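Please review this pair:
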Amino acid sequence: LSSLNSSSITQFLLLALADTRELQLLTFWLLLGIYLAALLANSVIITATRCRPQHLHAPMYFFLLNLSFLDLGSISTTLPKAMDNSLWDTRDITYSGPFGAAMSAPTRLS
């Protein structure tokens, strides 16, 4: 009676966003556009709040700056992998991938 389940999880299987190659490429370009727009918008917010601190003393701008950094961190961990999966038609992600990205986010932001 001492048999134990010794299986381990090494990867997650993801659902595909599209089945045909044309839709996968369309998904890739759409995600790339969203990613670049988010990078540009957050960079503008960070630049505006860092370059003109004498005019932006309100706590709102402090929190907006932090929100922009958090948004950059979160979007830079999820969207590139989604674009990679869409472009190369892969449907798996390693178990350590999301954990490593989540643990490295605080060090990237500081």
